[in-house]
Structure formats: structure tokens, C-alpha cells
Design brief:
The protein has 20 helices and no strands. By secondary structure, the chain is mainly α. It has two domains: 178 residues, no CATH class; 250 residues, no CATH class. α4 runs antiparallel to α5, α14 packs antiparallel against α20 and α15 runs parallel beside α18. 46% of the residues are buried.
Length: 482
């Protein structure tokens, strides 16, 4: 495949996935001021606490399914795939159904010992069953990703998202149900998409798989499920301590800042959708995966500094435009910590690919465990004295610990060059632009926004021209695998 053909192919994938992700994030951004008018900071605090259930259970419920499907899809023969997928589905369905029923039964009596500011019935119960229903969307989504079926992926992800938004808007704006309508809306929407998720799954999976294929690749998936438990625990640590020590309004600002900073993950999401299936494919056919991963990790890590700088420096202008009353302007204080944290995690996820490519996951639990240890150390030493800032620092340092351990293990099992000098150079350049732009705050937010945006585009041009050009040309070289 020539360089032009490669550009056309990956440009099409980028456009397809990009459209879906930007549609999702764009609608989220547009709806923020509408929700700000009908929900209070305390309501957003309640939403943040209910998300403890989803954040904790999602990686546990998945049982490593998404990664395992993508890792082994091209190693299974066409005859084997439907049966392995079928057994995987039925195993996870049984496991999650039993676990959800147990948690629902115990939640009424014991949830108050874990979560003090929100009652189990109805909000936490809605969230629990919402997590169960939405989990099964991960099967057809993972299959569409590995097959690079962009249209199918967008139908699944944006169809479910638009359903959620439509129902939530109706219950919150029309029925005036407030935070109860918000949480209930997600439960209804995820229940609606449960059946389509099953139908889409069994287009590729065997409904009655042969006993011959009953042995799913548990050696790969089981450590991922254990890591999922640690992952879930580390993800909700901040919400747990926020619930114990801080008022709901502060938790609301914290959660909104996290949501705003998650715009950094737009690029991360698009990149993973294209690159991870690609790297699994070329690894399966033994086509120089280490060199491709080395160059791509550098290009990705450097370019991701651009949306991070944008998110950190444009926060004031965007929030001020969305909220002229100034009620929510406080959240901009927390945005940089989340943006940098998301960047660190994203770099760890891409540069830290290696154990899965080498076919081993026995040490994968060390990654979230490192984050938990560091985060807990910060919490126990600096809460409640430093309040929300202690929580932010714990998130930031926990993310750093996880990514460092992830990259070290990846290099051990899948050696390749890291291009550290170029990476450090990009951080210095991005840091200089960040410091300069944070001091730009004019009377007109629109002029201020325009100046900062122009500077950010200049930053991107400098990074590409002086740091990445050779690596980008290497990735697009006709000799590289397609």
C-alpha cells in the first residue's frame, strides 16, 4: 500500500470514528448549560456519588472481555470465533447477573456504611442495574472495533448515547424530576439497549456454542478481571473520600471539572479505536509490531500535549461563555489537574501496550495496585486538611504511578525504543506555551479565546515540524504493514 493509500485509509477511519466521538462530546458540551439551569451543584454532587457504582463495577463486569476479544480475534480461526465468543458471552452474562442480584440484595441494608450522602433506593439501585444492562454493549462494540466496522460502531455508541440523552432530557426538563430523572433516564435507556446489544452480539457469536470450544482463553482474561477489581477500586477512591469529607456542592464542581477535562480523551478515544485493532492485527501476522508501536507511541504522546494545553488554558473562556452568571466558574480551578491526569493515563495506555501483545497478563494487576497505594498514601496523609486539593493530587500521582509501572512492564515483555529525548522536548515546549497562555485573560473572552486558539495551533505545528516529522514519515512508509 502506498503512502497516499495509507493516508486515505486511515483518514477515512479517523473521519468515521472522529465523527462519532465528536458528536458524543459535542452534544455533551452543548447540553451543559441546559443542565446547569435545572440542576444545582449539589445535584451534580449526587450524580458524582452514584457514579461510584458504575465506575467500580464496569471493569469487573467486563471480565477482560473487550481486551481478550481484540487480542485473540485474529488468532482464532473463522470456525472457532463464534464459539469462543458465545462461551465468553454466556460466562459473563451468568457472572454479572448473579453478582448484580447479590449486590441489589445487600445494598438495601449495607450501602449506607459505604456511601453516606445518597440512599440506595432508588438512585443507587437504578445505577446498579444500569451498569448491568450497559455492560453487554461492550461485546458488539469490541467486535466492531477489531473488524474496523466504523458505521456499526457509531450506530451502537451514538445510538445508545442519543437514547440516554433523549430520555434524560425528557425526565429532567419536561417532567421536572431533577437528579432522580437524570439517574432514572440512564437506567431506562440502558435497559432499552440491552436487547439490541444481544442481537448484535449473536450476529458474530454462536447462541449455542459447541462444548469443544468451552475453554475460553481464561489464562489471558482472568488476570485482567482481577486487575479490573483493582481498577474499579482505584477509580472510585476519590468519590469515596469526597463523600466522607466534602459537601455535595464541592463534589459537584469536582465532577463537572472532570467532565470538562475529559474532552482531552476525545483524541485518545479516536486513536485507540484505530490503533489498537491495528497493532493486534500486525502482531498476529508478525509484522514488525515493536517498531510500529515505538514510533506511534511517540507521535501520539507528543500530539496529545496539544489538547491538554487547550483544555487547561481555554477553560475560563469556555465556562464563562456557557455560564454568564458565574455560578460554575469555580470548576476551572480543578480542570488542569484532571487534564494532566487524563494525559498521563492515555500515554500509559498506548506506550504501556506490551504485556497483551506478548500474550501475558500475569503482572497486569500491579498497574492499578500501584495507583491505589500512591493514592491511599496521599488521602491518609493530607485529608481532610487540604480538602479537594488532596483528592486532586492523589488522582494525579496515582495516575502517574500506574502509567510508570505499566510502561516498565510493557518494555520488559515487549522491548522497543521509547524516544525519551523527543518526548521530554515536547513536554518542555508544551509547558512554555501553557505558562504563557495561562496569563492571557482579556476583557473580551472571545478575543482571549481566539488568541489562545491561534497559539495552540502554532504549538501543534512546532511539535510536528521539529520533533515528529521523521517518525510520522516512518509510520506512513509504504514498507510498513497495512
Amino acid at each position: 500500500m502506498t503512502r497516499k493509500e495509507k493516508l486515505r485509509k486511515y483518514g477515512t477511519l479517523l473521519g468515521g470514528y472522529g465523527f462519532g466521538v465528536f458528536l458524543n462530546q459535542g452534544i455533551n458540551l452543548i447540553l451543559i448549560p441546559f443542565f446547569w439551569k435545572v440542576l444545582t451543584p449539589e445535584d451534580f454532587g449526587v450524580i458524582a456519588i452514584t457514579q461510584i457504582i458504575t465506575l467500580f463495577l464496569t471493569p469487573i463486569y467486563l471480565f477482560g472481555a473487550s481486551d481478550t476479544i481484540q487480542r485473540y480475534y485474529y488468532q482464532w480461526t473463522e470456525e472457532e470465533r463464534p464459539h469462543y465468543l458465545g462461551w465468553f458471552f454466556w460466562f459473563i452474562f451468568s457472572f454479572t447477573l448473579v453478582l448484580t442480584v447479590i449486590l441489589d440484595t445487600l445494598g438495601v441494608r449495607y450501602s449506607r456504611y459505604v456511601i453516606t450522602s445518597v440512599s440506595f433506593d432508588p438512585l443507587l439501585r437504578y445505577t446498579l442495574w444500569s451498569a448491568f444492562f450497559v455492560n453487554f454493549l461492550s461485546f458488539p462494540v469490541a467486535i466492531s472495533r477489531i473488524k474496523q466496522k466504523v458505521l456499526t460502531y457509531n450506530i451502537l455508541m451514538n445510538g445508545s448515547f442519543l437514547t440516554q440523552i433523549a430520555i434524560v432530557l425528557y425526565l429532567v426538563m419536561h417532567e421536572k424530576l431533577g437528579v432522580y430523572g437524570y439517574v432514572r433516564g440512564f437506567w431506562i435507556a440502558n435497559a432499552i439497549w440491552f436487547i439490541p446489544s444481544l442481537l448484535m452480539t449473536f450476529r458474530d457469536a454462536e447462541l449455542f456454542p459447541s462444548k469443544k470450544y468451552m475453554k475460553i482463553p481464561l489464562k489471558f482474561a482472568a488476570p485482567l478481571s482481577l486487575a479490573g477489581i483493582f481498577e474499579g477500586f482505584s477509580t472510585v477512591l476519590d468519590r469515596y473520600f469526597l463523600d466522607k469529607f466534602l459537601p455535595l456542592a464541592t463534589i459537584g464542581f469536582y465532577n463537572l471539572a472532570r467532565q470538562f477535562a475529559s474532552l482531552v480523551n476525545v483524541i485518545n478515544s479516536i486513536t485507540k479505536l484505530i490503533f489498537i485493532p491495528y497493532i493486534y492485527k500486525i502482531n498476529a501476522i508478525k509484522k514488525n509490531a515493536a517498531a510500529v508501536l515505538s514510533n506511534f507511541s511517540l507521535v501520539y504522546s507528543v500530539l496529545m500535549t496539544v489538547p491538554v494545553v487547550a483544555c487547561c488554558t481555554l477553560g475560563y473562556e469556555v465556562v464563562a461563555a456557557l455560564d454568564p452568571t458565574g455560578v460554575y466558574i469555580k470548576l476551572i480551578e480543578y480542570i488542569p489537574a484532571f487534564a494532566v491526569s487524563f494525559y498521563i493515563i492515555a500515554v500509559g495506555q498506548i506506550t504501556g501496550r506490551g504485556m497483551d501483545l506478548a500474550g501475558t497478563t500475569k503482572w497486569v494487576t500491579l498497574v492499578p495496585l500501584a495507583g491505589i497505594i500512591v493514592s491511599l498514601t496521599v488521602y491518609l496523609n493530607f485529608l481532610p486538611e487540604y480538602g479537594v486539593w488532596a483528592v486532586l493530587w492523589s488522582v494525579l500521582l496515582g495516575s502517574l504511578a500506574r502509567s510508570i509501572v505499566n510502561i516498565i512492564l510493557a518494555i520488559k515483555y515487549f522491548p522497543r525504543e521509547l524516544h525519551i529525548a523527543k518526548l521530554l522536548s515536547s513536554w518542555v515546549v508544551a509547558g512554555v506555551f501553557y505558562v504563557l497562555l495561562m496569563n492571557v485573560r482579556l476583557e473580551s473572552i472571545w478575543i482571549s479565546f481566539a488568541i489562545k486558539l491561534m497559539a495552540i495551533l502554532i504549538l501543534a505545528a512546532i511539535l510536528v515540524r521539529f520533533i515528529l516529522l521523521r517518525n510520522i514519515k516512518t509510520l506512513l512508509h509504504p514498507g510498513q504493514p497495512d
